[in-house]
Each structure stands twice: as C-alpha cells, then as structure tokens.
Specification:
Layout lengths: L14 E9 L14 E2 L4 E2 H4 L5 H5 L1 E9 L6 E5 L2 E2 L4 H4 L3 H10 L6 H4 L11
Antiparallel strand pairs: 1-4, 2-3, 4-5, 5-6
C-alpha cells in the first residue's frame, strides 16, 4: 500500500477494503523493511501512527479478495486471487462482465460509493 497510487489520477494513498484474507505462518518482513509514507495494515499514514509500524504482523496477512478505492476520482480496482488489478479504463472495459460479477457477488460487503457510484462502472446501470 505504501507504493500504490491510482493509475488514472495518481491519488495516494488508495483505500483498502479487505473482503477475505489469510494469515501466512512464518512470514517475515525483509530485514530493514519499513513503509515510508503509509501503513496499509493500520490504514494510516506513518506520521499518524504514533508508534513503529507492525511490519512483521503486516507481512503475515495476505489479502485474497478485496478492493482498492481511489478517493480522488472514485475508481475502484478489484483484488482477486491476491492480485490487485490496477488497470486503465480501456483495458477494464474488456473484462467489464467479470468485474460486474465481482461487484454483484460482494454487493453486501462493499460500500455504496463502489457498488452504486464507482467508476468506471457500477451496479446502477444494470
């Protein structure tokens, strides 16, 4: 999360919404690793934390499914099978049906700013 920005408007940080995750046994942050600007685990800037980031704990959590939301332009990007899909709109249009199916499957877990207002498409047009 410390290096991800919206590929369209360049807003940083993106908002992480976790739908499912798993804890990895024995996972360790690389020696000397520390996020510089934003802690995705605690969803705060490093300056706001008031303590050292919990990098070891963070590395033990893997997001299996979720959404990255851009508060700047209102775009959402799915995380499917641990992979964030930060693609431009013209490429996403080619997989629109799959992304709409993702929204339908998770409509109860996602906020309306994504399901009803999200870009480049949402469930209101259906």
């Amino acid at each position: 999360m410390d290096v991800l920005a919206c590929p369209i408007c360049k807003t940083f940080p993106l908002e992480l919404i976790v739908l499912s995750e798993r804890v990895l046994e024995g996972a360790e942050a690389p020696e000397g690793f520390r996020c510089e600007e934003y802690c995705g685990f605690e969803r705060k800037s490093i300056r706001e934390l008031g303590h050292e980031p919990k990098c070891q704990e963070c590395f033990a959590h893997e997001v299996e499914e979720g959404v990255l939301y851009c508060p700047g332009c209102g775009r959402w990007y799915p995380i499917i099978d641990e992979i964030p899909r930060l693609l431009p709109d013209n490429i996403r249009m080619k997989v629109k049906n799959a992304e709409l199916a993702f929204l339908k499957r998770n409509v109860e877990k996602l906020p309306e700013k994504i399901t009803r207002e999200g870009k480049p498409f949402n469930l209101t047009a259906l």
